[in-house]
Amino acid sequence: MSAVRTEDLTKRYGDVVAVDSLDMEVDDGEVYGFLGPNGAGKTTTIDVLLGYTYPTSGEARVLGEPAGDHRVHERVGVMPEGFGLYPRLTGREHIEFVAESKSVDVNTDAVLERVGLGDAAEGDDPADRRTGGYSKGMKKRLLLATALVGEPDLLVLDEPTSGLDPNGARRIREIVREENDRGATVFFSSHILGQVEAVCDRVGIMQEGELVAVDTVEGLREGVVSVSTLSVLTDGDGGTEAAMGAVGSLEGVSDVSRKGDSVVVSCLRGDTKLNALDAVRQHADVRDFTTQERSLDELFAAYTGEDGDAETKGEA
Ligand SMILES: Nc1ncnc2c1ncn2[C@@H]1O[C@H](COP(=O)(O)OP(=O)(O)OP(=O)(O)O)[C@@H](O)[C@H]1O
């Protein structure tokens, strides 16, 4: 069964098409990274899935029920992007409130401790402070804690790591992994590929309301023309030109150029680099070499059309 499924889902705000005929499927038990630049339609999609807003047309189902159905409320843990906290309530009171609304028992101390809010240092336990005085990072941690209440089958986390320091972001990723090990499906939005890469089974990339790619991070890398660049520094003698000719005829090489005494090779596949290096060595003396993988940022830009040079292969 799919944990999340949309079919031809469209949401318009006046003339703005926030979500455009979206077909998306998140498998039961997977960690799905939902990516896209600002304004791509991620939050709108999540709002439809949670029943916060109605679709203009199309269908969305969550845990087998229509989006927003009260029967799944208790089985879904939500971490919203905006801060939906009550400034006069303490962290502890928030957890108890959510537990009550879901009719579940919760070990409040344990859940707060898990997100790093439960350490009672010198009697000043952040869990007992009103959230109006929380820092941005503390608010994020508390929102995650509220999402964890009741061991939900599906966690929907909207930009959970934005605004967090590296330790906070790492803790969130650890919790995502722990929750997934427990059996939960995690739907995790972000506009930074690097934040979801380490934990996601698959990544879906949104752009202007449409999914432009769905794959593993590895698959996304392979789908982009020129996945890595090999630069081989030769001694500059006559063999360099011959080396360029040999490399150019190799399978998996998309471009060869010369930069000073270096032969620069664009490779379509990981194993092409070694073959290219061997080919250069057969014709020229090699002094050094470097390789460069396409960075996640470049990859993301390639899929969202913000990289003028990049091309992607085939359909998403
Ligand atoms: N309530 C609304 N009224 C009018 N337009 C809206 C509303 N909510 C979203 N939009 C528009 O829909 C589009 C998608 O916005 P959305 O917030 O879903 O994107 P996002 O991918 O979550 O972006 P971000 O990463 O910036 O949060 C944008 O053009 C936005 O201006």
From TrEMBL:
An annotated Gene Ontology molecular function: ATP hydrolysis activity
One Pfam family per UniProt: ABC_tran
Signal peptide region: none
Keywords recorded for this protein, A-Z: ATP-binding, Nucleotide-binding, Transport
Residue ranges of domain ABC transporter in the record: 4-233
UniProt record similarity statement: Belongs to the ABC transporter superfamily.
Protein name per Swiss-Prot or TrEMBL: ABC transporter ATP-binding protein
Species this chain originates from: Halorutilus salinus
